[in-house]
Amino acid sequence: MKQIAKYIALITLLILIAPSILFLTDQMPLPAVKTTMLVATIGWFILATIWMWKEPET
Amino acid sequence: MTEDTTEQTHESGSEFERQPVPQSALLGFKSFIGMYAGEHCAGTELMIGPLFVACGVSAFDLIAGLLFGNALAVLSWMLFCAPIATRARLTLYYQLEKICGRYLVILYNLANGVMFCFLAGAMITVAATALGVWFKFKMPGLNDIYPNSLGWVVAVLSIGVLIAIVAAKGYKMVAKFANIAAPWMVLVFLAFGIVGLAQFISATGVEIHSLSDLWTLAKTNIWKGGEPLAGKVKFTFWHVCFFAWFCNMAMHIGMSDLSVFRFAKKSWYAVASGAGMYVGHFMAWISASILYAYQLHGDPTNTDVLPGPLAYRACGICGLICVIIAGWTTANPTIYRAGLAFQAIMPKVSRFKVTLVTGLIATIAAMFPWFAMKLLDFVMFYGMLLMPMGAVIFVDFWLIKKFGLQSNYAELSRKHFNWAAGLAWFITLAVCAWLVLTDRIQIYFVSLPGWFVTAAIYVILSKLYQKKLRPAV
Q: Is residue A22 one of the residues assigned to a domain?
């Protein structure tokens, strides 16, 4: 489960940065950039939490 | 521009507070890369980049100054801090106590705690500017000193009290969250820069076909140089260079990161600080400065340095979340650390109460935009204030025996206050303050001669002081 979350989380990071590059090359309008970045942000925090969150060992 | 690292390392290695870190507890190189890369992408980066533009910096001065100044900062960690850390393997506080005595360490804690308070205040200010976008209250301008609307006060109070309570309860949960947020935050900072650049290209209508075209755009539209905005000092290459070098002076030349690098297997691991410098103090500052330059390009009368609106214009709600998280995750450990510094002075008062009060003081400071708008000067003052103790440690560790004197004199003589170190600190501060207040040297540069002043005074006074009280060895 953690492995799957890790790989998808890394993909969300790509989705986070890609829109700004597409905006720079005039291939995506700014409103779409903002929406995509928000979706990627939500995805990252859910998946990265599953991947990286560690409860303290007891 | 802040450092979770010290605290994280403290947390993991608190059992080594008064003894050298053993071989079994040493950390590998990768640990330091992660620590530094994450910690230097803080909320305050969103203030510093725009303030460079407000200071009329030119493209060459900014890029070259940051490249060179950050390299000097990395070298300072490698050549000043880490070699002592990996030989002594002690915390800054224990190292200082051995040299200066317990009472002088208390004074150092007080100075450090107060500085952390105001730094945390600036971080809360940054986070509060994001709320202004949502709730549309009046926010402070570039030269405002006092809070200028009830909405601003309520926003700062809400965020500040929340941060203070979380910090008082112990910040481990926030530290975990900060670790998760770090890679995301770095990329959002990068996106700020890319989107800002694209907006500039679109607004100016220039065609970019080569790096040369990009450089022309940077010189003529983004960082145009010229006169600074009202109330700001003109920034040259040297200002940028010294700012990048000295903005973490308390940590490298000031030796605060002895507590971090005592866990390093080799002193060259300090090169890992470069990850923090070139991500946070190069890319993030440049990105934030592009956003502010674009704002000025659109409306030269809008000189407000407000990270919330800047980030929102570029990346929407994602940008606002970044501003809040960047401010929150860095203000939290800073308040926690300030609380620890104050608690060392008042050990009988609970850490919860001390941290809560510390957080409330930081919140009150955050209501006054003056601290955030004067962040460049404040950061330089912070470095200048704590730098002399780093010079004392450096001289005591490497040089003092060459003058026929004792190192770790307070420990050997069982003194609680080493007057040679204390006076070296106070006299240096007085000299530096005089040089700055009489306009002989700007605050951005004064710490360089200040270091040599401290070193010389410490040796001279130790000659006099230790002569009278030389312990039997």
A: no
